[in-house]
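Posting here for the record, re: magnesium ion.
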Amino acid sequence: MKIVMLGAPGAGKGTQAQMIAEKYGIPHISTGDIFRYNIKNGTELGMEAKQYMDKGQLVPDELTVRILLDRVAGEDCAQGYVLDGFPRTIPQAEVLTAELDRMNDRIDYAINIDVPDENIVSRMSGRRACTNCGATYHIVYAAPKKEGICDQCGAVLVQRDDDKPETVLNRLKVYHEQTQPLIDYYGSRNVLKTVDGTGSLQQVFKDITAILEG
Ligand code: AP5
Ligand code: MG
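Prediction output follows.
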């Protein structure tokens, strides 16, 4: 099963992708997490990506596509995967489609998590992320058992550098300009499913599993 998660920054792509990956035993691949891992480890890739991410801009397609294709070629991806934050532009989607075509394969579902812009800033300001395993929390909606500590691995939770309100607003603008057109792209390929992302984490997950098992 190959799944693409669509939705605005903060819509819950990462949260739901993590739950899908666990339930169906497929890898959760987030280009944002790959970039953050590289930033944390001070790699050249991380330093390049950080310049864009801190401004709320997209990392150039060429670099992003190279990293993603390399990752999905991994052996653990043979049975499928859930992509979170990729594709994010039409050219990225076209490269992915061409690569899958080459293998007589395709994306099975593009799940669009629909959340209005008004809800996004408050979600982002309460988000906390694990510095070690990347797990995502929210101080109100998805609090860790122990404040500031990851339930899964015990590492420290931090606020992401790009979750400042002014950066969030720019990320939303970039989303509407460059990523939202993917809703039509996957719609025209008959794999688009939209879920209401304003319900609870569990409700959204229930709606997604109903689609995947329907
Ligand atoms: P990325 O890491 O992908 O960030 P994003 O798309 O902006 O999305 P977020 O991770 O902010 O949100 P999410 O939808 O995953 O929401 P979450 O589940 O955390 O990308 C970061 C940057 O990297 C980009 O700006 C760009 O620079 C670069 N980049 C990455 N991929 C790229 C690409 N393909 N091309 C070019 N550049 C790329 O949820 C948010 C919060 O809400 C959490 O606190 C969560 O607990 C809470 N929450 C989730 N669901 C609910 C719910 N139902 N109710 C209440 N709270 C909820
Ligand atoms: Mg995310």
